[in-house]
Write a structure and sequence with these properties.
mainly alpha; two-stranded antiparallel sheet; 4 strands
Length: 274
């Protein structure tokens, strides 16, 4: 009986209780970031397949579809510069604050992700209009240039700046000192779960959309499918996720941590997340 009373499962310090409460408060926000990672996962998978079915020629040179991710990298670099030098100071002067909060940046990232999926869906719609349907090998089967993919890569790159950077800063800032590594782990888990959910979503869509006349939205021959519908589905799901995220972010109240308190945790900041 004495051993059970001394067990850490029965006795917890105030700090331990507050730390658990802090982590539980982060979970609704964290769940809303998983669908963004689903969108991000398309850049290394379906974007490449889509590009492979487009016109990749520049004179006699063929552009590898996977190399289009260069525009994502360039977009990240340019948007970071614009955000730090122009947007953040402008918002700080206009709103008389320190700039955009982490939650606001994550919301902007979700909006840009929706734009990326809409852009990809429109490109695929016009690619199908200019494609040869009855082709054995559909590599380069559409006359639409691969450079029409540039906007969707740019939107994804811009969304990374706002979502992933804001997400990492938010989780690190809102976790106690003893659990900073857990905040970083939440970001990594969101990315990994996004890849898993992406594969699961593709499998579900293929099972539901397959009929006798059509092999599904994402068949091996994209000219016989409707990849554009899958992109629009992702845009709709991300839009719904954005609505839920805004509600969760408005509910969330920032917590400030100080080392001179008894438990190292301040009371909730009266300023809400958005």
């Amino acid at each position: 009986m004495e051993e059970s009373k001394c067990s850490p499962w029965y006795l917890s310090t105030v700090t331990q209780v507050e730390e658990v409460k802090c982590i539980l408060r982060l979970l609704p926000i964290w769940l809303c970031t998983i669908l963004y990672s689903v969108v991000f996962a398309q850049m290394a998978s379906l974007f490449v397949e889509q590009g492979d079915a487009m016109d990749t020629r520049i004179s006699s040179f063929h552009i590898p579809p996977a190399s289009m991710s260069t525009f994502d990298i360039l977009s990240v670099a340019i948007v970071i510069f614009i955000y730090r030098r122009v947007l953040d100071p402008l918002v700080a002067r206009t709103m008389k604050s320190k700039g955009l909060t982490e939650l606001q940046r994550m919301g902007i990232g979700l909006v840009l992700a929706i734009m990326a999926m809409v852009s990809a869906g429109l490109v695929e719609h016009f690619r199908l209009k200019n494609a040869i349907e009855d082709c054995n090998e559909c590599k380069g089967s559409s006359s639409l240039s691969i450079f029409w993919q540039v906007p969707q890569y740019v939107f994804v790159g811009a969304s990374e700046v706002f979502m992933y950077v804001g997400q990492l800063e938010f989780f690190n800032a809102q976790t106690p000192d003893g659990l900073k590594s857990f905040g970083s782990a939440l970001c990594m888990t969101s990315i990994s779960l996004g890849n898993y959910v992406s594969s699961l979503l593709v499998a579900i869509v293929m099972k539901i959309s397959a009929t006798d006349e059509m092999p599904g939205w994402i068949p091996g021959n994209l000219n016989k499918g409707h990849l554009d519908m899958f992109y629009f589905l992702l845009a709709a799901l991300t839009a719904a996720d954005l609505v839920i995220y805004v509600l969760m972010a408005r509910w969330y109240k920032y917590i400030k941590f100080q080392g001179n308190n008894d438990n190292g945790i301040n009371k909730e900041d009266p300023e809400v997340g958005l």
